[in-house]
Write a structure and sequence with these properties.
Family: Belongs to the aldose epimerase family.
Pfam families: Aldose_epim (PF01263)
EC number: 5.1.3.3
Number of strands: 30
Strand order of the largest sheet: 12-13-14-15-30-24-23-18-21
Keywords: Carbohydrate metabolism, Isomerase, Membrane, Transmembrane, Transmembrane helix
Number of helices: 1
Catalytic activity: alpha-D-glucose = beta-D-glucose
Structural class: mainly beta
């Protein structure tokens, strides 16, 4: 049987056809053991584990053909169980923060698990990044699909939800497709991929000399606990302005700690993907471009990393990686002027990301 996990994508006016064949074996029937899985296309490869549906490595050639792993992570799968950084994980049921660890839906107050002071972060104490996913489909030269069944009341969220994430590999392209279907109750859903990128190599130091362009001219400002105030403000002339490419470190000293803010991506929200970000690293010549169908992207410069021992005994410190987490707006459940994250039975949440890697 042929399945099409992702048929076509619209990328800046060009349709990128990604028809990928899935095998008919349902791996979800197998015993849930924590394992690693690798996708390879030529000299481009990505590795995952079914614990948290985590991306554990991404090997990419530089302009001279030298390969480096450009995502932060751990050597040991056990290390991911004790991880507080969310390295490479799929986070949810609601990514980012929920203020006061509560929200109202259809007149009912729901209290979620507070794990960031009085707030809920990335789904709560045991979110989707801390559960074992089943593998529904796996073709090493094509894709892998992870599946998780979230239960009613999990971390305080209402209703049963079936969740899938499919990672798809092409020639220097990585696609990510996140889907979720509520089964019996309306519920907020906002999934995100929490990969930390360092295009010079995961063990090469900080990312302050990376150049970034963010195709977004507004942000959702936050209070001292990183909960949005509800305002939407222009980035024009501020340290948040990356409409033209510049080094991440060029104005970071003007901010308390670094970048950790939701940008509102330019252009209409619809079925087509919008170009979101371009990241370049001059020494290796590597370039990463990102498209998504989501309204926002959290730009985070790993401000809270403190001497985390990672792969190959590399020590990751502050500014050791950058995150580009496409998403709905943080704390949308408590701000009526933000795009809704409520998904009802019969509806499907769909979140698509497309990464393209080159080196010049």
């Amino acid at each position: 049987m042929v399945k099409k996990p992702w048929s076509s994508l619209h990328v800046t006016g060009v349709y990128v056809l990604m028809v990928l064949l899935c095998c008919c074996v349902d791996y979800s029937l197998c015993e849930k053991k924590i394992k690693t899985y690798k996708l390879t296309r030529g000299n481009f490869s990505v590795t995952f584990t079914n614990y948290g549906a985590v991306m554990t490595s991404l090997l990419l050639p530089d302009r001279h053909g030298k390969q480096d792993d450009v995502v932060l992570g751990f050597d040991s799968l056990d290390s991911y169980k004790n991880d507080t950084t969310y390295f490479g994980a799929i986070v949810g049921r609601v990514a980012n923060r929920i203020g006061g660890a509560q929200f109202k839906l259809n007149g009912q107050l729901y209290k979620t698990s507070p794990n960031d002071g009085y707030n809920t972060l990335h789904g709560g104490t045991k979110g989707f990044s801390d559960v074992i996913w089943s593998v529904q489909s796996y073709v090493p030269t094509s894709h892998i699909t992870f599946k998780y069944n979230s239960f009613d009341g999990e971390e305080g969220f209402p209703g049963n939800v079936t969740v899938k994430v499919t990672y798809m590999i092409g020639k220097n392209i990585l696609g990510v497709k996140m889907e979720a279907k509520p089964l019996n109750k309306p519920t907020p859903i906002n999934l995100a991929l929490h990969t930390y990128w360092n295009l010079h190599g995961h063990n090469s130091g900080d990312i302050l000399s990376h150049k970034i362009q963010l195709l977004a001219d507004k942000i959702t400002p936050v209070d001292d606990t990183l909960i949005p105030t509800g305002e939407i403000t222009s980035i024009n002339g501020t340290p948040y302005d990356f409409l033209e490419p510049r080094e991440i470190g060029s104005r970071i000293h003007e901010l308390p700690g670094g970048y950790d803010i939701n940008y509102i991506i330019d252009g209409p929200i619809g079925k087509h993907l919008r170009k979101t970000a371009v990241v370049t690293e001059d020494i290796t010549g590597r370039k990463m471009e990102l498209w998504t169908n989501q309204p926002g992207v959290q730009f985070y410069t790993s401000n809270m990393l403190k001497r985390v021992v990672g792969k190959g005994k590399a020590v990751y410190g502050k500014y050791g990686g950058l995150c580009l987490e496409t998403q709905g707006f943080p704390d949308s459940v408590n701000h009526k002027n933000f795009p809704t994250q409520i998904v009802s039975p019969g509806e499907t949440y769909l979140h698509v990301m497309l990464f393209r890697f080159t080196a010049h």
